[in-house]
Fold this sequence. Notes:
The protein has helices spanning 20-29, 47-59, 67-73, 107-120, 137-143, 158-164, 224-235, and strands at residues 14-16, 34-39, 63-65, 81-86, 98-102, 124-128, 151-155, 168-172, 189-193, 209-211. The radius of gyration is 19 Å and the shape is elongated. Helix 1 runs parallel beside helix 2 (47-59). By secondary structure, it is of the alpha/beta class. It has 2 domains: 14-86, CATH 3.30.1330.30; 98-235, SPOUT methyltransferase, trefoil knot domain (Alpha/beta knot). The N and C termini lie far apart (47 Å). The strands form 2 sheets. It has a 6-stranded parallel β-sheet with strand order 7-6-5-9-8-10. It contains 7 helices and 10 strands. 39% of the residues are buried.
Amino acid sequence: MNVRLKRYRKDFTYSYTNGVFSTLELLDARPEHVINVIISQSGEENDGIEKIRKLCRKYCIPVEVNEKTIERISLKGKHLAIGVFRKYPSSIEPGKNHLLLVNPSDMGNIGTIARTMAGFGVVNLALIRPAADCFDPKAIRASMGAVFHLNIEYFERLSDYQAIFSNNLYLFRTGESGNIRDIIFQKPYTLIFGNESSGLPDDIEVEGKTISIPQTGKIDSLNLSVAAGIALYESSKY
């Protein structure tokens, strides 16, 4: 790139990975979108750095040793490698199982959920705006690069999603009827969660099977990423 790289902002047309593992995942899954890779001189003896160099040679991706750039654009701490990539469009697949988040606001949750999805083989993530930026380096790092293995698509409204996809909808709410232990998930399904603070709105514009995850009265609700992980595990049984 012929520009001085800066700390990430949402309006950038490019983003970064932070760390060796996430950079390897980027090179493995989306090499066509990689602009260049910046490595630290202190990482030259790292096995992961050698793997990065090998992949960059394979795909003719420039590699630069530049400590100052790494320090300038890194998240907390100093990383041995940073991948610079163009943001790319992505579309979720019809006829497949989906996970849908309504107005998620936390990049860490997005990343953690993405990693769990990849682990259970659900690779289609729908996000209803306003929603956190899946290309934010914080989300990428929380996912350990798993976001590069998912199809992620944003929608303005939940009804816009439903107009395209005819999946069986499972709506997760705290304290509602429909114990997850008693549910048989019919494929293709969509697991739907609200945001971290308020959950699914009462006036949600779609109908589906409402489900709760049993918990004690000692907490108000489970963390969004934990609840999504439980749902992914239970639905993977069918």
